[in-house]
Write a structure and sequence with these properties.
By secondary structure, the chain is mainly alpha-helical. The chain folds into three domains: 4-129, MgtE N-terminal fold, CATH 1.25.60; 145-255, CBS-domain; 275-457, Tetracycline Repressor, domain 2. It has 21 helices and six strands. Helix 11 links the parallel strand 1 (145-146) and strand 2 (171-175).
């Protein structure tokens, strides 16, 4: 959501553009950070965007362009002349250019590629060939490489020459003549060393790297684990081909988190912001899951129909407890599944840890089930019977409390193991979290409840 300050600036900016007070427009934008400017521009009419970009320098325009929404980018590209388009993309880092290209329709991509210089075109095409969600798709080829026999002074000379064209220079990578990665060194280390010191004596040979085909989530996990600001990317032969910086990893984490939240809420993930989505798109993302859950809920209905006459013969009060049992079981299963899915995402647990997870969740479930079933018994006896006058006997209350106890234990077991099983067979754990765990727990809790009632009350 746009901040109040930026909303006010967007209003002022639009008014100044209508008055054609371009010096004031430039003054209003001057000094603002690129994400803030992009946020402001996202609130003004699209027809005013090209005017602003023509007032900006190429470097500033490129920085702001990267932060714009895909829709605004497409509109601007259509509005740019070939030279303007070339100028903006020449100032962008390769990974940002690739991200933009991936967001655009085919006709726009063709125009961008045609305006790129041959070297950029080759780099972009190479990156686009990597599998989706791999490290190769988010890396940048703009990094500083050094040689081990160089002195610190020679290293700084190289950094000064190349710094403007590189995404980051804080970490530099040492390679041999064939581009094999043999070490790394930080600018801090270089600053603290004497100018005539050879690089091989101060470089770190314990380099943490990833392959071009490494999954992006694994890259995020590695950067988090080792507290890196960037990680080098190598090909299958160990030659460095690029680096992934922490800002790109944050984007990956945000995207994956958004996808998991959407799946756990039984909604098909969509990269487009909610307010930008059409009603049809939202309907399309939600209807499959609602239909799936409706069909899966029929199993619950079948179980109720099977035991309906038996329960009614025993006590009509038992049916009043069914929603409480099902809701509590579903909540208990969701608690466990969300915890395990989050642990899988940050690599704290793996499918091989299933027995440890089951044992831990079993102990937790016993404690939780004891508290909740005791509260359930007290509620039926003190509130429902004494306060509202419903004829819940001690035996009836014990039946419901016992079913509640077992429901929570089973729900925790299902919620803890199902995501691990999904991960093991190659499914997304977030997909099974909401609809399937709820359906399984509902069915099991009803079968338990009905069988306990029949066994005790008959």
């Amino acid at each position: 959501m746009i901040s109040e300050k930026n909303a006010v600036k967007a209003e002022m900016l639009s008014r100044l553009l209508e008055l054609k007070d371009y010096p004031a427009v430039k003054e209003l934008i001057r000094g603002e950070l690129a994400p803030d400017v992009a946020e402001i521009l996202g609130q003004i009419p699209e027809k005013q965007l090209p005017v602003i970009f023509r007032l900006l320098g190429k470097e500033t325009a490129a920085e702001i362009f990267v932060e714009m929404s895909p829709e605004a980018k497409e509109y601007l590209i259509d509005s740019f002349t070939d030279s303007e388009l070339r100028g903006v993309f020449e100032e962008m880092f390769i990974d940002d250019a690739v991200d933009t290209i991936e967001e655009m329709p085919a006709n726009v991509v063709k125009r961008i590629i045609n305006q790129a210089d041959p070297e950029t075109r080759k780099l972009v095409n190479d990156i686009l060939k990597y599998p989706a969600d791999s490290a190769g798709t988010i890396m940048t080829v703009e990094y500083v490489s050094l040689k081990k026999d160089w002195t610190v002074k020679e290293c700084f000379d190289r950094i000064r020459r190349e710094a403007l064209d590189k995404e980051t220079v804080y970490n530099c990578y040492v390679t041999d003549q064939t581009r094999m990665l043999i070490g790394c060194v930080s600018v801090r280390t270089l600053l603290l060393a004497e100018p005539d010191t050879r690089l091989e004596s101060i470089m770190d040979t314990r380099v943490v790297s990833v392959n071009t085909h490494t999954d992006r989530e694994e890259v995020a996990s590695i950067i988090s684990k080792y507290d890196l600001s960037a990680v080098p990317v190598t090909d299958s032969d160990g030659r460095i081909v690029g680096i992934i910086t922490v800002d790109d990893v944050i984007d990956v984490i945000k995207k994956e988190t958004d996808e998991d939240i959407a799946k756990m809420a039984a909604v098909t993930p969509d990269d487009e912001p909610y307010l930008s989505q059409s009603v049809f798109t939202i309907w399309k993302n939600r209807i499959p899951w609602l239909l799936i859950m409706m069909v899966s809920a029929t199993f619950t209905g079948l179980i109720i129909n099977t035991y309906e006459s038996t329960l009614n013969a025993l006590s009509t009060l038992l049916f009043a407890c069914v929603p409480m049992l099902m809701d509590t079981g579903g909540n208990a299963g969701s608690q466990a599944s969300v915890t395990i899915i989050r642990s899988l995402a940050v690599d704290e647990v793996r499918p091989a840890d299933v027995l440890r997870v089951v044992w831990k969740e079993f102990r937790v479930s016993i404690m939780l089930a004891a508290c909740v079933s005791l509260a359930c018994f007290a509620k039926l006896q003190l509130i429902d019977r004494l306060l509202f006058g419903y004829p819940y006997t001690v035996i009836l209350s014990l039946v419901v409390a016992s079913a509640m106890f077992l429901t929570i234990v089973i729900a925790k077991a299902v919620g803890g193991t199902l995501p691990l099983a999904a991960k093991k067979i190659g499914l997304d754990p977030a997909v099974v979290a909401s609809p399937f765990i709820t359906t399984i727990v509902d069915a099991l809790s009803l079968i338990l409840f009905c069988n306990i009632a029949v066994a005790v009350l008959s």
